[in-house]
Design goal:
By secondary structure, the chain is α/β, with parallel strands linked by helices. It has two domains: 157 residues, Response regulator (Rossmann fold); 122 residues, Rossmann fold, CATH 3.40.50.2300. The strands form two sheets. A five-stranded parallel beta sheet has the order 2-1-3-4-5, with helices on both faces. It has a four-stranded parallel beta sheet with strand order 7-6-8-9, with helices on both faces. One of its GO terms (cellular component) is membrane. It holds the Pfam family ANF_receptor. It comes from Tetranychus urticae. InterPro entries: ANF_lig-bd_rcpt, ANP_Clearance_Receptor, Peripla_BP_I. Keywords: Membrane, Transmembrane, Transmembrane helix.
Length: 304
């Protein structure tokens, strides 16, 4: 999933000062001149988990806070705009009730003097808060929000820097279309809202006339235990895949994909007869580690 970057946060906060309107550089200059003659301080609500205790650990205040601080300094130094960041924090993990409660408290506290919200990152939390923001006609900006099932037009004040699942599913089909691969198989992690939603959206697109030439010949799921270890017999999953398609889309975490590809390699499926498509980023790439090898004595196989 796409997170915040320093540049993204900077532009998020900058856009907030203009209430989400698209404006020209001339209008910006006029607006900044007017600020020199009036109050140039704006209240912004920051809705975010303080520190995640599980999952999505990259999108909490501990990780995103420094970028917001840098963006706030840039707005002040470059545009003489002072952004008062008002806390709407909550604990541990995604909580719709806490997110919308914090948003409501900030709206009540500032009584029309809140120019917008940043966050939350969690899609369920964001969906709840963005409906309140749409009702109040207040901009709300996030770097995520990729799993929101309701129609975009219902969230009239939401600005997302992320794609949503329909965009991603269409991108997968566009990739297949480029290579004229019309038949494919699908393997995804069951019980994970992200991958389940993406699989569901992808399969629903096949019912549209535009994508009717595609066919998902087989669909398989796998399960993980609480320690994030795959407990499904992947060998059998792959054996069933060999009977229906040579194009296999995998929707799961990068560690899961490594396990699946090692199993595929042992079954002789990595000699060029099969194509494995993984539409996610490998998290370790951000750390500069591009190797599949993990240094385990009983598992020395490295797959390019």
């Amino acid at each position: 999933m796409v997170g915040f970057t320093i540049l993204n946060i900077y532009w998020i906060i900058f856009v907030l000062t203009f209430h989400g309107q698209l404006i020209t550089s001339t209008q910006v200059n006029k607006y900044l001149l007017s600020l020199n003659q009036s109050n140039n301080s704006f209240n912004v609500g920051l809705l975010m988990v303080k520190r995640y205790r599980k999952d999505a650990v990259r999108f909490d205040l501990v990780h995103i806070g420094p970028a917001i601080d840098i963006a706030r300094e840039k707005c002040l130094n470059y545009y003489d705009i002072n952004l008062n960041i008002n806390q709407g924090y909550y604990e541990d993990t995604c909580k719709e009730r806490e997110a919308i409660g914090q948003a409501y408290d900030l709206l009540e506290k500032y009584k029309g003097n809140l120019v917008g919200f940043i966050g939350p990152a969690c899609s369920n939390d964001l969906q709840a808060v963005s409906q309140l923001a749409a009702y109040k006609k207040i901009p709300i900006l996030t770097g995520l929000g990729d799993i929101i099932p309701i129609h975009r037009s219902d969230l009239t004040s939401l600005i997302r820097l992320s794609y949503d699942m329909r965009d991603k599913a269409r991108a997968i089909l566009a990739f297949l279309d480029y290579f004229k691969w019309k038949i494919f198989g699908l393997v995804f992690r069951f019980g994970d809202v992200y991958y389940n939603t993406l699989a569901d959206v992808l399969l629903k697109l096949l019912k549209l006339p535009k994508y009717s030439h595609f066919k998902c010949n087989c669909r398989e799921t796998y399960f993980r235990d609480f320690d994030k270890v795959i407990i499904t017999d992947i060998d059998k999953v792959l054996q069933r895949m060999t009977t229906c398609s040579r194009i296999i889309i995998i929707l799961g975490g990068d560690k899961d994909v490594r396990t699946i590809l090692l199993k595929a390699h042992h079954q002789g499926m990595t000699q060029g007869e099969y194509v494995f498509i993984y539409p996610e980023l490998i998290e370790a790439e951000a750390l500069g580690n591009m190797s599949w090898s993990r240094g385990v004595a009983c598992n020395q196989t490295s797959i390019d």
